[in-house]
Design goal:
Helix 1 packs across helix 9 (about 215-240) and helix 6 (about 155-165) runs antiparallel to helix 9 (about 215-240). Helix 5 links the parallel strand 4 (about 110-115) and strand 5. This protein has a domain at about 5-150 and about 170-195 and about 250-255: Rossmann fold. Strands 3-2-1-4-5-7-6 form a 7-stranded mixed β-sheet, sandwiched between helices. The protein is built from 9 helices and 7 strands. By secondary structure, it is of the alpha/beta class. It binds S-adenosylmethionine (SAM). S-adenosylmethionine (SAM) binds near residues 3, 47, 76, 100 and 117. S-adenosylmethionine binds near residues 50, 53, 54, 72 and 116.
Length: about 260
């Protein structure tokens, strides 16, 4: 499985989503996801850390003891390294390029795992969730947010097809399948909060930004045709979110005290 974020994908997604992010909401979103979770002093694994925004804010703002960010894409990791160094937080954030597959960490190693907009890149969730369970300490928690399929309708299909046409591999499942796979991997205390309305609001704001204040910078990176594609992408994403094709939920799940079930 590959994931082809090219340089212009990265540059434009970061313009739209904010420094350090390839998903909506930025640092505020990470604070929201982890509100009520005791992060201070904890060891955190950020799976699919992308441009490093979450890893940095977990250490810098939420006072995590240490954050390990891993990603399969050296291009995004190089940008994440710049962000870590700009924030002068290299003593508490370690970034690591990994091949797809089991994580290079021993069993029961982390207190917390963060996973935002990454599970949707996996054609099979069970190996991913099983490995997250393995590296969490008993009582440790998985926290994240992801795209979830709401219906097999025209809005969903337009979004899904557009992503594939741009070389991005996404495998959207519904909440039931996501939840069952977590459960099958041994997790307990599984909870979801539907965030579609807020994320749809952010997606609509993005469309406006792409049309106005971001227009010139996007044209400079992408050219006129590329700008048109980018605007089309932003519009289809907003439509899919506002018209019941795709949603976003935040989730959390706990590793029970015991060995993995698989
Ligand atoms: C949509 S981006 C989200 C990045 C980041 N979590 C954020 O919210 O900004 C998905 C990230 O997952 C990474 N990724 C995809 N498959 C992966 C895998 N098997 N292991 C680790 N990272 C992976 C991609 O390279 C990409 O950086």
């Amino acid at each position: 499985m590959t994931n082809n974020y090219d340089k212009s994908n990265i540059a434009t997604m970061e313009m739209i989503y904010g420094e350090g992010y390839l998903s909506a909401g930025g640092d505020r979103e990470i604070a929201k996801l982890f509100s009520g979770v005791d992060v201070a002093g904890k060891s955190v694994l950020d799976v699919g850390c992308g441009l490093g925004g979450a890893a940095v804010t977990l250490a810098r703002d939420l006072d995590a003891g240490h954050v390990h960010g891993i990603d399969i894409d050296q291009g995004v990791l190089s940008r994440a390294e710049e962000l870590v160094s700009k924030n002068n937080i290299g003593d508490r954030v370690t970034l690591c390029h990994v091949p797809p597959g089991p994580f290079p960490f021993p069993d029961e190693h982390f207190d917390l795992v963060h996973l935002t907009a990454v599970a949707c890149h996996f054609d099979e969730l069970a190996p991913l969730f099983g490995d997250i369970y393995r590296v969490l300490k008993p009582g440790g928690m998985l926290v994240g947010r992801d795209w979830l399929k709401l219906g097999d309708n025209a809005e969903f299909r337009s979004w899904d097809e557009l992503l594939r046409a741009r070389g991005l591999n996404f495998y959207f499942v519904d909440e039931r399948q996501f939840s069952r796979t977590l459960e099958g991997s041994g997790f307990t205390g599984i909870s979801f909060v539907d965030r579609t309305r807020e994320i749809a609001g952010l997606a609509m704001q993005s469309v406006q930004a792409v049309k106005s204040e971001l227009r010139d910078s996007l044209v400079a990176v992408l050219g006129d045709a590329g700008y048109g594609d980018c605007l089309n992408w932003a519009e289809i994403r907003a439509q899919a979110l506002t018209r019941g094709g795709i949603g976003q939920s935040q989730f959390s799940a706990i590793r029970q005290n015991g060995a993995p079930t698989r």
